[in-house]
Specification:
- The protein is of the alpha/beta class and 952 residues long.
- The strands form 7 sheets. An 8-stranded mixed β-sheet has the order 24-23-25-30-27-31-29-28, sandwiched between helices.
- The radius of gyration is 31 Å and the shape is globular.
């Protein structure tokens, strides 16, 4: 990394880092809307960097480029700007006609041609037009595949000056073949950088050595708190512009559909009037904001005058400063309140628009026809679930092979193999010498479940005569058990595609089920058509009392040993990156390197080392949890490189027995090893206690996930499931119910919903069972029983497709206050009700702190609820033997309970994410939108009738 220097005349960052330029109001807001969220930073960057030249690769409609030009013009900068694009489209933007460029020129040419040039050509064709070291700001926003964006960066890197800044848009898009995030992960550690996660992400990379102090301070990754504050402020400033752009696009879309919603003309006119009123409100808020900004500038001038008079009247100046700070805080609070109000109104507009569209579709003749098809699809879906266990294995394999070929031919994803139940008792675990730790851990769980277990390292000469097999790393064996009697445990890393051949994918698909240890691998397998419900996540964990387990498995017990080296590395040492790291370690410590060691010899070597180091074979590798937990189970701490999925291991990262260093940083690893060795001397008890705690915690998780898979596959019954999971702890008092195998749903919750919640939320891996509604109900029953076992009197459970509106935190505080004040007077708080039963009675209506609380005698919905003790007892008593989906789904079951006091709010506290698919019924959540809208309207009518009766 080059040494960064300040440019002459630049001030360093202070409390006044947010410049007025960031408040620029753009003249041009076009599609796509997400870039609008970065316009405040773009204007701020122009004010701070004052570039001599700016090049944008991929201008499209010009929303970003015109913002740069406007900022340059308003700030009076001497900047030359260039937009390079073919204006023909690409694989991500799609093909488009001449209208896009014509619209751009219409906005661009009258204002910016004196310093701006539109260059219609490919990016590589434009390279000769720019001298090396001549570009100060480069914005890369072309084709977003990893290969394309890396090519753009590397080919244009020589063109960047000593003041060079590179912007990467869509750096937080993790779908399809978008690869900007992957390149960003490689580059952000090489240069000073700042990453804005909002609005699809924007990466800021300082590749030049001479940078303004203010910009350099924002890109100082060592000051994480400051960077988070910067991201928060610019996200808040950009949210309004992005919402405004999206609202413009929404209004345009609604205009195109006027002919299709003639039957709703009156309601539509009323809605348009409401939108106009909201527009007026927004304009009023914007005017008030301008007034506030003017007042703020006046206050700042007054503060400056007070500062100048400090020497003459010290006491008076201090008083004036205090007054200014008080006013500043008040203005900030008011400004934030206005921002939140605008965001809430925008969210309400979007919800209303979606509801109106859903109602329009529902009232159309075509919707009524397709509704019959959807109902038929659901019937077929449920019938397939019931008949799947009885399908002959040969027919099943043939059907899935044909389906895979057909879907691959037309580019569609391949669905999962249906689950099969079974009652077999003798299991064989087939695993190579490399994976005996996993085999031992599996054997321990299976034996607890009452199975007889045989451990195998080679294909048995007598054939596959046992009842069932679990094959660890199945690609390592030339011969495998029949598909209907094998479970495969996939252990390869999806960062390297060499193992994932068509033959290997066929093995995974045509097995009874496919287990994997890493969520990232499940996401990769889903792209290959191997997905839920065929897949199961089984993360590797530690094994407590490993010595006794080894004896149970016919292996030698762990004998006492003395350390004979500081550091042990075992694995393939042919990778150059591993050799470089090991050489750095050998200069400081006694290092033992083993390339081909297994079994008891490996276990002895691990226990003879004070520290084991884990160095990736691939730079972008996942965490090698098998190695990590085997070492911890043997009592040896670990120092490891960070990994692409390190965020999945939060509990492990907080443990003193593990230290994580940046990828490829040999000196950081040397320092981490030194600190670990010192800790063994100064606080060995703390280290060993942390190690033991993590082995127990992770081992419980591994056992739970194995039992969860066996239960879903029908290998253990309900009584065994309940008895075997009895020791498992309650994950928390506030939980989200989610299945890790539904990768998209969980990722959406973790990335979009979870950051907006104020309380600590634990993710519970839902119970799996077929049909899915039974597994869902079993999850609620399991959590309710766990809560009652621990003495909990209240439990909050939300599902991973819940959506929190912008004002959720404020409204939730009022809800919590009301529930606390009425403790013992309610059984369930429902954040959303999907359907108002015809027999529902309103028991009470209260207005408190601007919130309307409604008490009902029943409810239907499980999206976001808080359960008091009576409701927990009811959930715990749910009967899994009743297999009627019309009466015994968990929401129908609760609705049928008598004397259940249900509290909700008007409007509902939460919403339902519409772009997710139901994991129970095989439909898209968008179909619930009109139902939920009708439920809220029905509830309003019930409340109005109740209040009229009370007023008499």
């Amino acid at each position: 990394m080059n040494r960064m220097t300040d440019l002459p005349g630049q001030t360093r960052a202070s409390d006044g880092w947010l410049l007025p330029a960031a408040l620029m109001e753009p003249y041009h807001l076009t599609h796509p809307a997400p870039w609008a969220g970065h316009i405040p930073f773009a204007a701020w960057l122009m004010a701070v960097a004052q570039p001599r030249s700016l090049v944008e690769l991929g201008a499209y409609s010009g929303i970003s480029y015109l913002a740069f030009c406007q900022a340059i013009a308003e700030q009076g900068l001497m900047t030359r700007t260039y937009a390079v694009d073919t204006w023909e489209g690409d694989a991500h933007a799609g093909a488009y006609g001449e209208g896009i460029l014509a619209s751009l020129r219409q906005a661009h040419d009258p204002h910016y041609t004196q310093f701006s040039t539109l260059m219609r050509m490919r990016f590589d064709e434009a390279l000769p037009s720019f001298a090396d070291g001549s570009v100060d700001v480069l914005h890369i926003d072309g084709l977003h595949t990893y290969e394309a964006v890396r090519h753009d960066f590397e080919t244009w890197l020589p063109k960047l000056s000593e003041r060079g800044v590179v912007l990467f848009h869509d750096s937080n898009v993790h779908r399809d073949d978008f690869g900007v995030h992957q390149l960003w992960a490689e580059l952000e550690g090489r240069y000073p950088s700042l990453h804005f996660p909002h609005s699809n992400g924007l990466g800021v990379l300082l590749v030049g050595a001479q940078q303004p102090a203010l910009l350099r301070s924002l890109c100082d990754r060592s000051d994480a708190a400051f960077q988070r504050e910067v991201c928060r402020v610019f996200a808040a400033l950009g949210a309004r512009l992005e919402a405004k752009a999206e609202m413009m696009a929404l209004q345009h879309a609604l205009g195109d559909q006027r002919e299709q919603i003639q039957s709703l003309e009156a309601a539509g006119q009323q809605r348009h009037s409401w939108i106009e009123k909201l527009d007026a409100d927004i304009r009023s808020l914007e005017l008030e904001r301008e007034q506030l900004r003017g007042h703020l500038e006046g206050t700042q001038a007054q503060a400056q005058q007070s500062q100048n008079a400090l020497e003459q009247a010290q006491a008076q100046a201090q008083w004036l400063t205090a007054q200014w700070e008080t006013r500043q805080q008040q203005q900030d609070i008011k400004f934030l309140a206005l921002q939140q109000e605008a965001a809430q109104k925008q969210w309400q507009i979007e919800q209303q628009a979606q509801q109106m569209q859903a109602l329009a579709r529902k009232l159309s003749p075509m919707w009524q026809i397709t509704d019959l098809l959807r109902k038929g699809k659901r019937v077929v879906f449920r019938l397939k679930q019931k008949l799947a266990p009885y399908e002959p294995a040969g027919l099943r394999r043939l059907r899935h092979a044909l389906r895979r070929k057909m879907r691959q031919a037309r580019g569609a994803p391949v669905s999962a193999v249906a689950l099969l139940p079974g009652n077999n008792r003798h299991y064989g675990i087939l695993a190579t010498a490399h994976t005996q730790f996993v085999a031992h851990a599996l054997a321990q769980v299976l034996r607890k479940a009452g199975f007889e277990v045989s451990l195998l390292q080679d294909v048995p000469a007598e054939g596959f005569g046992l009842d069932m097999y679990i094959v660890v790393c199945p690609q390592m064996f030339k011969q495998l058990p029949p598909g209907e009697k094998r479970i495969v445990f996939q252990m390869e890393q999806s960062v390297s595609p060499r193992w994932f051949t068509d033959d290997y994918l066929a093995i995974l698909e045509n097995s009874l089920s496919a287990w994997d240890y890493a969520p990232a691998n499940l996401a990769f397998l889903e792209t290959k058509g191997i997905r839920y419900p065929h897949t199961f996540l089984v993360p590797i964990g530690g094994v407590a009392a490993y010595s006794q387990l080894l004896q149970d498995c016919g292996e030698p017990a762990l004998s006492p040993v003395e350390p004979n080296c500081d550091v042990l590395f075992y694995g393939d040492v042919n990778a150059p990156r591993r050799q470089e790291m090991l050489q750095a370690l050998q200069r400081q410590f006694s290092v033992r390197i083993e390339g081909n060691l297994f079994g008891d010899a490996l276990r002895r070597a691990v226990r003879q080392a004070r520290v084991v180091v884990n160095i990736h074979y691939y730079e972008g590798a996942l965490l090698e949890t098998t190695r990590v937990y085997e070492c911890l189970s043997l009592g040896t701490p670990v120092v490891t490189e960070s990994s692409a999925d390190i965020h999945q291991h939060a509990a492990l990262l907080d443990n003193p027995a593990l230290r994580v260093t940046p990828v490829g940083d040999a000196q950081a690893m040397v320092q981490a090893v030194q600190e670990m060795l010192q800790q063994q001397v100064h606080s060995p008890a703390q280290l060993q206690q942390g190690l033991a705690d993590e082995v127990v915690r992770s081992g419980q998780q591994f056992e739970f996930m194995v039992l969860r898979a066996l239960y879903a596959l029908g290998r253990i019954d309900a009584a065994q499931w309940e008895a075997l999971t009895m020791p498992q702890p309650l994950p928390g008092r506030c939980m989200v119910l989610s299945m890790p195998e539904t990768v998209r749903r969980r990722a959406h919750f973790i990335e979009q919903t979870l950051p907006g919640l104020q309380s600590e939320v634990a993710v519970f891996d839902g119970v799996r069972y077929s049909p899915g509604w039974l597994g869902c109900a079993m999850s609620y029953q399991y959590l309710a029983r766990k809560a009652l076992q621990t003495g909990a009197t209240q439990l909050e459970i939300m599902e991973d497709d819940v959506e929190m509106p912008p004002d959720y935190a404020q409204r939730r505080a009022r809800v919590d206050s009301w529930l606390a004040a009425h403790d013992g007077q309610w059984d369930i708080f429902a954040g959303l009700i999907a359907k108002i039963h015809p027999g529902t009675q309103v028991l009470e209506v209260q207005e408190r702190d601007g919130e309307t609380f409604v008490v009902l005698d029943r409810m239907t919905s499980m999206v976001h609820n808080i359960y008091a003790q009576p409701a927990l007892e009811a959930l715990a008593q749910w009967n899994s033997s009743i297999r009627d989906p019309h009466t015994n789904t968990i929401d129908s079951y609760l609705q049928g309970r008598a004397q259940m006091r249900v509290v909700t709010t008007l409007p509902f506290l939460v919403a339902h994410t519409t772009d997710m698919d139901s994991s129970l019924w095989g439909i898209n959540n968008h179909e619930y939108l009109a139902v939920i809208y009708k439920a809220e309207q029905d509830l309003r009518q019930l409340v109005e009738r109740f209040q009229q009766v009370q007023a008499r």
